[in-house]
Amino acid sequence: MSALPLSGIKIVDLTRVLAGPVSAQMLADLGAEVIKIERPGGGDDARAFGPPYLADPDGKQNNNNSFYLCANRNKKSVTVNIAKPEGQEIIRELAKTADVMMENYKVGDLKRYGLDYETIRKLNPGIIYCSVTGFGQTGPYAPRAGYDAILQAMGGLMSVTGHLDGEPGAGPMKVGPSIVDYMTGMNASIGILAALFHRKANGGEGQHVDVCLFDTVIASLSHWAQIYLVNGKTPPRRGTWGNGGMPAGVFRCTDGELMLVVGNDGQFQRTCAVLGEPELANDRRFVRNNDRVVHGKEIMAIFAGLFLKKPVAYWLDKLEEAGVPSGPINDFEQVFNDPHVQSRGMRIKVDHPFERELSLIRNALTFSGTPITDYRAPPLLGADTRDVLATIGYDAARVDALKAQGIL
């Protein structure tokens, strides 16, 4: 078994909340040494985004909540007050030997601390410096703060999400999870990896990687946004309807709901047979997929009535036999009890100071030669401060003095 892909890569991570930490966690999973810089006392802002929190063995309040736990495994936590000159010097010393520095402060904020890209590049010309922001390093909105829900609204995602017009509750709707943060984290990881490859392949030069939530959400709208660019019309909200094949959507059965996606004409013919109405496949309104899109409300209404005749499990079995994509609408308990999810090992157990077997979600990447097999729990605040600072020459006495001054 080979070493993990990013073994030997050192990252100084000044990001907080979700998008940046998700990216740093991905890179840590791949073997990078990620040194997470947190504020003394409070730490990453995400530590306050609870409940729920883990139960402290002594019954004390703590800052290890689910929001923080989801994005900070496999890292080292070092507390540094970057508002103080001594703290700024610590970050610069760490950056001198780092491959990557990550931050998600407002544009220009770190310049006053001497921790901006231009300053760090002079100390380490090979540094990959990744900035993760709401709106990017340039443009009229660059100074603004940005959170996932705001960017879902401004980027167009909410305009095409929600119940169909005319249905109860119709109107723009936010996607449940912080999906824009997560996608931005993925883009940041891709950018960092590409810059690392460029540095190795093209002479050792570093660069500034600018990743933002606004760019990410717009790019993620893919064919939905392309429809507008082709015909100048924003696609309507479709509720649970599919985005290509028809019919596709949630159908109520006698004991629950299922999701169906009929992707082509052959699948439509087989679905009609499963539903006991094979002649529907020959109805001139529904013969081709384009026809079914035009007559979407009609075919969806017909299918809705047919699915109401049997329970979910019956239909799923029959549809699977017919080779038609469908699935149950699972809650999280059902997801993690699903035998396929269990066989893929999506739920992992790690040893945490508060909980012997803390459950986390594994990295979604699977490698044949460099598998990710070892996971470390998200660190307690400042747990690695002494060990990390020792690598840049800070002995115990100096660390104690800086702690007394509120620097660490």
What does the model show?
InterPro entries: CoA-transferase_III_domain, CoA-Trfase_fam_III, CoA-Trfase_III_dom3_sf, CoA-Trfase_III_dom_1_sf. This is CoA transferase. Helices cover 36% and strands 14% of the residues. Strand 4, helix 4 (117-123) and strand 5 form a beta-alpha-beta unit. The mean pLDDT is 96. The protein folds into two domains: 10-219 and 346-404, 3-Layer(aba) Sandwich (Rossmann fold), CATH 3.40.50; 248-328, formyl-coa transferase, domain 3 (2-Layer Sandwich). The chain has helices at 19-29, 66-69, 85-96, 117-123, 148-154, 179-201, 213-220, 222-231, 265-274, 289-294, 296-307, 312-321, 332-337, 339-343, 385-390, 396-404; strands at 10-14, 33-38, 75-79, 100-103, 128-133, 207-212, 248-252, 257-261, 326-328, 347-352, 355-361. The chain is of the alpha/beta class. The longest helix has 23 residues, at 179-201. The strands form three sheets. Strands 3-2-1-4-5-6 form a six-stranded parallel beta sheet, with helices on both faces. The chain is built from 16 helices and eleven strands. The two termini are 39 Å apart. Helix 6 crosses helix 7 (213-220).
Strand and helix map with partners:
Blueprint: E1 10-14, H1 19-29, E2 33-38, H2 66-69, E3 75-79, H3 85-96, E4 100-103, H4 117-123, E5 128-133, H5 148-154, H6 179-201, E6 207-212, H7 213-220, H8 222-231, E7 248-252, E8 257-261, H9 265-274, H10 289-294, H11 296-307, H12 312-321, E9 326-328, H13 332-337, H14 339-343, E10 347-352, E11 355-361, H15 385-390, H16 396-404
Parallel strand pairs: 1-2, 1-4, 2-3, 4-5, 5-6
Antiparallel strand pairs: 7-8, 8-9, 10-11
Helix pairs in contact: 1-6, 6-7
InterPro entries: CoA-transferase_III_domain, CoA-Trfase_fam_III, CoA-Trfase_III_dom3_sf, CoA-Trfase_III_dom_1_sf
Keywords: Transferase
Protein name: CoA transferase
